[in-house]
TrEMBL record:
Protein name, as recorded: Sorbitol dehydrogenase
GO molecular function term, any single one: zinc ion binding
Xref: InterPro entries: ADH-like_N, ADH_Zn_CS, GroES-like_sf
Domain named Alcohol dehydrogenase-like N-terminal: residues: 1-107
Entry's family note: Belongs to the zinc-containing alcohol dehydrogenase family.
Highest taxon above the source species: Eukaryota
Lineage: Eukaryota, Metazoa, Chordata, Craniata, Vertebrata
UniProt xrefs under PROSITE patterns: ADH_ZINC
Keyword Metal-binding: yes
Coiled-coil residue windows: none
UniProt keyword annotation of tRNA processing present: no
Cofactor requirements of the protein: Zn(2+)
UniProt KW keywords: Metal-binding, Oxidoreductase, Zinc
Length: 159
């Protein structure tokens, strides 16, 4: 891994040892906002190669269920999510991840920017769900990356 963001959920697990029903019961690696360089691929991987720079999508379905079939695998109760107990995150030197959930970074995107892909996608999803459009009045509260990303989306629309 090259760059990994520290999310509010990481801090919460570190300070409180749990988020709802997800309880840290043994030492675990935090981090789910990440980018890095591919160092090895499995024999069935065709879309990535050694040396590719990628951003990591932290949620990966463990099985094909009804949510996967309708394209909403993020709602699957069997979802693997980096740094959600009991699963380790990617704030480490090397991390093995499903190639289908690794996205190539263009040459003009830094690793640091690549690590912001996940929080930015959350912000975009929130804006779409809330049907926010140019000219909408919104209240942004908090200093997390998702709120920062929403602010950037609005600033970009203004200029």
């Amino acid at each position: 891994m090259h760059s990994v963001g520290i999310c509010g959920s990481d801090v919460h697990y570190w300070q409180h040892g749990r988020i709802g029903n997800f309880v840290v019961k043994s030492p675990m690696v935090l981090g789910h906002e990440a980018s890095g360089t591919v160092v090895k691929v499995g024999s069935s991987v065709t879309k990535l190669k050694k040396g590719d720079r990628v951003a990591i999508e932290p949620g990966v379905p463990r099985e094909i269920d009804e949510f996967c079939k309708i394209g909403r695998y993020n709602l699957s109760p069997t979802l693997f999510f980096c740094a959600t107990p009991p699963d380790d995150g990617n704030l480490c030197r090397y991390y093995k991840h499903d190639a289908n959930f690794c996205y190539k970074l263009p040459d003009n995107v830094t690793f640091e920017e690549g690590a912001l892909v996940e929080p930015l996608s959350v912000a975009i999803h929130a804006c779409r769900r809330a049907e926010v459009i140019l000219g909408s009045k919104v209240f942004i509260c908090g200093a997390g990356m998702e709120n920062f990303s929403i602010s950037l989306i609005f600033l970009k629309q203004m200029f």
